[in-house]
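Complex record, two chains
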Amino acid sequence: MPCSSSVTSIRRSLYTASLSLLVLFAGYALGAIPCQDCHEEQVAAFATSPHAALVQNDVKFCASCHGDPKAHLESAAAADLVGKAELATWDGEREARACATCHEAEQPAWRDAPHTSEGLCWSCHESQALHSKRADSLPPAKRHRTWDLCTRCHAEQAAEFRMVYRHPVESGDIDCTDCHDIHGKSSLRVDLVEQSTCLRCHEEQKGPFLFEHGGMEQGCTNCHSAHGSPHRGQLLTAGNGACLTCHLQSDFATVGKVSHDFLLSGGGRCWDCHSEVHGSNTTPDFNPRGRR
Amino acid sequence: MKLIYAIGCALLLLAGPALFAQTSGTIAVGVQGDSSSDDTSTFKEQNNGEDSGVFLDLLDLRGTGSPAWHIDSRFNTGGRGWLDLEARNRAWSGGFRLTNTRSWSTTSFANGTLPSGTSISTLVPSVTTLDPLFGIDEPHTDLLRGEAWLRRSIGDASSVTLRLGVRERDGERVPNIGGFSFSDSGTPSFYAPGIETIDSSTTWGAIEAVSSIHGVALQLDAGLSTSDNQTRHDLPAYGESGLLDLNRWTTGSEDDSYWIRVDVSRPSERVSLRGGASWYDVSSTPNGTDLRVSETGALVRDGLRLTNGSIDSSTGAGAAGLTWKIHPAVALTVAADVRSQSTEGSGDILLRGTNPVATSTDLSTDRAGATIDLSSRFGDSRLRIRGRFTTTDVELREESSPYLEDLERSIDRSELRADFSHRLSKKTRGRAWGRWADESGTVDVLALYAGYALSDWDREDLSGGVEITLGNGARRMNVSVSGGTRDLVNAPPVFDPVFDPSIVYVDAEGEVSTFRAAMTGIWSSARATTWGEIGWLSNEYDYDDVYDQPGFAPVSEDVEGMVIAAGTEVRPREGTRVIGQIEWVRDDQDLDRTLTRASLEVAQMIRSRFELFGRWYLGDSDAPRSTQSEYSVNLFALGIRANF
């Protein structure tokens, strides 16, 4: 009898184990067994993350990085998952592929975005979405939209935004992503309107005008510094240097049919007279007061 | 602003208690007072319009239920700020993003901006402060941008997104142009600040669709837009004894446009194909006037009026390319693109109220480009070499009697860029890049009457830089150094009529050089976080060899600038935080200006969820060459922050 009892006990254990595995497999197949049943601590770290709801209800979310949990559910061995050490060896493309498991439809051209090839999904999103709390490592004064994230790497741009005349990015009124397509939206250079980035806000300069300024073909940054400048209007120069890049000529004082010596000797700037420099509907020389 | 607050309050009320059931976040509000001296208008122009009043320091709420949602908002005392709302569940996501950017203008013109440092007011009679005749003490414009979107995800790789947006700019600003006029004695008068009044709005809607069919990814974007942009300039003309009249000119248009864009890609392990095409069309009704009016706005002298204006412009573009993985670590991309833009416009310009002059514009621009990109990764190193060539043909014919310009322009541009990055150690990365570009333009003037046209030109750019990143996450330092030069050669332009036939023009040469160095670093521990930034810029325009006219203000420029910023957040004991930040900006050589911004905040927890904070902000400008731009402003704020 003792022998029979042992056999029964073993059978019971086998049944229980099989049933458990069956439930686990069924649960996994239905996506109903959350990883938090065992990994409570890791899941809790997502409490303030946009992924909080997903991590509690969807095995697929964890699997996108840690791999198919099928073997892990059978063995419970850590080696059967993609662990921290292996994740650290992933290149940017692999990182991005993991994120694209769910986000491909939002960022369809992520493969072509410069940040993707550099492997930067987690450089920006780690503190907000992965196994840590929110951006506690940054001082509150820098927690303005994406400014704090972008300036971690882009030191030159950070310095430009400290200049006297700058776009209000540090304060958060303008976001880096307002101008820069960080995740890649269009896969090729088929933008319809040149300089469209600037003209999303500066639509008064968009045109079309009856008299277009050829300089607009060169782009806004031919005359303006996009991030910041020591000069009013975020111009590249204090004086006429930006205009002279194209209009530089010998015997400068006789630009056009008018002697400009008289006008410029007092420190006048080109746009004091040619004020409709972005384009005009009345004068081909962009000097509305000169034609009447 | 009232609209923004109303929307914000409505959202919070609508969200209701259900939203807050699984909510965490922060709300902080405060009240601010100021003490200032000298030119506070320049302070506002340079410091985001900070003023006395109530402010929303932070509204950051996050719901972690289903749908997950996030509200992020901040508005300063000047009325600038944003409200972002986003919500999503498994299949649906939507959001609303509203930003009000208030730009303030100085009411005085700096009179010392000559490159030589000479005060302009010593050269010509001028008025450097905004005349009270405009009745505007604090000129500012509001740029309101709003966008709402709703996305339905279908499976993992398909979605449809509807976007609706508005953009409005209203207000006044002091334009960066001089009120050019002749005084009674015939002496030119500059730098009488004027007022630019802007009233423009745009409404747009677009639909985006993303899908993947049999391994082919499709992306479609189509939209409509309508806009009305009107700008009016009023610049006073002063005589020896006072105001003569106002130069008033307006420019504007009413535009309707639509666009459609399709992108297709077929990614694969070996050869990936991509292609895209787009079309943009705008129909515009332009307007414009140029008058002289009295102080009361009565017409003094009629000038120019555009009537019956009409412009149609369309742009088509297409591109195709393939990426071939020659080796698991080497990828070669070859792509070609074309773009064609055509603009036709016409109208009648009335000169002095009569004599309609038929005016027409016919502009076409055709561009073709080719790109070759070699990307490789070996071990911890990445090398990317990219070459691009474009050729652009422009045909332009503008006519507005007696003016006529008919020309053909051809621009060839070649560019080569190399980018090398290497992971030196687990926490150290280095990067070096170099870029060369050459642009040459040839101009064929077919006809020119009463005009001025550029002639051939050539530009060569050479630039490069190195960058090192140490550490990652909360302990990181990034250092970069870069520089570049641009050599210019411009052939003499073409004039009609020729001013002085005795002058023989030759090619003009110039050089522009820019050098930069920057560093940013952050160091964080359990009780303190400290960050710092340093930036240095040298910008030189060298046109010295071009001419030597006696009495001429030098055109060559040399500006050097340095910015130093540092900040810290210290938690000396449980419940207490001290946050300090300082920025020091110095502009040198042809400029002479020092700007200091500093802030200090002390925050103390008073209960488990509430924190009181006091904040001091200093803005100080020292500008010896334009003392009208100097100011010193102190702002003091008290507020409460709730965390839950």
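Note: Chain B has a mean pLDDT of 86.
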